Amino acid sequence: MKAKLRRKPDIWTMATLFFILFFGLFLLYPLFGILKESVINHDGEFTMAQFFKFFSQSYYSKTILNSFKVSVAITAVTLIIGIPLSYFYTFYRLKGAKVLFVVSILCCMSAPFIGAYSWILLLGRSGVITVFLKNVLGINIGSIYGFGGILLVQALKLFPLVFVYMNGAFRNIDNSLLEASANLGCTGVGRFFKIVMGLSMPTILAAALVVFMRAFADFGTPLLIGEGYRTFPVEIYNQYLGEGGGNHNFAAAISVIAICVTALVFFIQKYATGKFKFSINALNPVEKKKPKGIRGILMYIYSYLLVAIAFLPQLYIVYLSFRNSNQGVFLEGYSFASYEAAIGKLLGRSVKNTIVMGIGSLAIIVVFAILIAYLVVRRPGVVSNAIDTMSMLPYIMPGSVIGIALVIAFGKQPLALTGTMSIMILALVIRRMPYTIRSATARLMQIPMSIEEAAISLGASKLKTFARITVPMMSGGIISGAILSWVSIVTELSSAIILYNNRNITLTMSAYVAISRGNYGLAAAFSAVLTVLTSVSLLIYLAVSKSEDIQL
Q1: How far from 450 is each of 370, 396, 506, CA to CA, in Å?
Q2: Residue 399: its pLDDT value, please?
Q3: What integer pLDDT is reported at residue 368 of this predicted model?
Q4: Residue 44: helix, strand or coil by DSSP?
Q5: What gap in Å lies between CA 240 and CA 230, rounded to an integer?
């Protein structure tokens, strides 16, 4: 009798067990390895010496303050320049708006260090713009290196994220609310700050968190342009792979501190967002107005000038890839010499590895995101919430921390993965899954449960309903999240630099290695190919999804 009462575990129970095992083995176990490495010395004794070393010496502890200061500054600047652009785009009929959108998105779809490299060539000590202003106009613009340079590069790269997030928030504002505020005498700038910004505050906080985390975890930009301004991710890399032989225990301790700091910021943002819990639905969408007069002219100047300046590094990189160069110096004349050199320097392998690992990682991410989103939304509970929380942990960690954790966990038998393509794919899946999970979850929450119940009542099994009804209806959110995951996959640097070798080298790593060796023509060629790849990815997404923009 008892045997008859026992139920066979369904697919969702099995999926739950699988994800518990997956995140336990490939995320929690490696993170425990980092914690262990930070407090256990070479003699196997427990010690807090590495943490005392970090906090007792300002040379090291200052990196926390540096990273925090520059990340806060970047976040503030991106909000200041990104929110007005989104407001003009959403509330006014700007000519060429689609071009404006696509180009702005391309600005944030390149590897971060490529922008830094390009700005060095433009505004560095011997940069084109620097030399021109000094020789022709007698203007000395100062140094681009350090805090100011990191702020410039990252703000111009990340403001499109604020732009995209705020587009969705502004579109959801009901026009009747704006009309009501106008009837009460609240118009113009006052209405923008009191009504529009107030209604958009949850999205503003979400966008701020995304920008802060991206800026805090960035490795390439401060490494290339920071010079004396040392940040957390760079210090972790230097301690782990230092020229004088890395101090792995100290690198692990810094990684633990990095996790704590980013987790604290994440929970502060969650707390602040909880203070603005309300829902709005645009039953009466805002009608776009035609920009008129001097205000309209200023809108066009602001929007197009901002996007043009942000996109300048991408154009300049492509231009330089066709210039003749020798020993890191660009010469007169144009040719395909840099591309020919790239072909002889692993271009084919880099493109192949980038596409193979990218597609493989993305396929796993999409499947995992669909299943996790369904568990979280349709089968809520303690275990489902735990899986959701574990899937989001990499979102708040620098990539170098993930890379080091995986090396510590899987650098030896019985599961030795270091140096293989498998560990690269594993790192990409873990790091970039949160984008698709969040997007798929948000879309599934908008699908009424009654639709699935209706299909089941008509004789469809639960699995068939899920595959034929639920997943297709989630497709919009899945595709939107997948394009963000894809672009971040193909431009990944911070974890790849810990895990890569020549067999598994990617386009991003090839470009970085060329820059670090001073071969700027070769670097420009690799970077141009990477820029084209990300551009094509965005265009394919827009064509397949038939979408005007990316929904977040």
Answers
A1: 19, 35, 46
A2: 83
A3: 94
A4: coil
A5: 15
Alpha carbon 507 to chain centroid, angstroms: 17
In a domain, 169, yes or no: yes
For 261, residues 6+ apart whose C-beta sits below 8 A from its C-beta are 64, 68, 216, 232
Amino acid 283: pLDDT: 56
Rounded to whole angstroms, the Cα distance separating 433 from 443 reads 16
pLDDT at res. 370: 92
Domain containing residue 216? 48-313
pTM as predicted: 0.82
- Taking 3-state DSSP, the helix, strand and coil percentages for the chain, each rounded to the nearest 5, stand at 75, 5, 20
Calpha distance 233→398 (Å, rounded): 7
How many other C-beta atoms can be found within 10 angstroms of the C-beta atom of residue 283?
8
Distance CA 359, CA 247 (A): 35
* Alpha carbons 124 and 76: distance in angstroms, whole number: 25
Q: How many CA atoms lie within 13 A of 134 on its CB side?
A: 14
* C-alpha to C-alpha distance for 285 and 166, rounded to whole angstroms: 15
- Give the residue from 476, 489, 395, 481 showing the smallest Cα distance to 436: 481
Q: Tell me the C-alpha distance between 367 and 307, whole Å.
A: 35
Q: What was the pLDDT predicted at 245?
A: 54
DSSP classification of residue 547: -
Instruction: Give the DSSP per-residue string, 111-173.
Output: -HHHHHHHHHHHHSTT-HHHHHHHHHS--------SHHHHHHHHHHHHHHHHHHHHHHHHHTS
371's CB contacts (< 8 A; 6+ apart) are 15, 19
What distance in Å separates the CA atoms of residue 380 and residue 514, rounded to the nearest whole number? 48
Which CATH number is 182's domain given? 1.10.3720.10
Is 251 domain-assigned?
A: yes
Instruction: Return all residues near 176 (Cβ < 8 A) that are at least 6 apart.
Output: 283, 284
- Identify each DSSP E strand in 327-366 by its residue range: 329-334
Q: Let me know if residue 229 belongs to a domain.
A: yes
Supply 331's token pair. Answer: 């010469």
Strand partners, 334: 323
Q: Do β-strands 323-326 and 329-334 pair in parallel, antiparallel, or remain unpaired?
A: antiparallel
**Per-residue pLDDT, 280:** 55
In a domain, 405, yes or no: no
Give the chain's residues under pLDDT 50.
Answer: 1-5, 552
User: Which residue's entry shows tokens 């942000």?
Assistant: 310
pLDDT in tens, 285-308: 667 788 888 988 999 999 999 999
The contacts of residue 338 (CB under 8 Å, 6+ apart) are 321, 322, 323, 325, 521, 522, 524, 525
Contact 498, 419 (CB under 8 A): no
Number of independent structural domains in the chain? 1
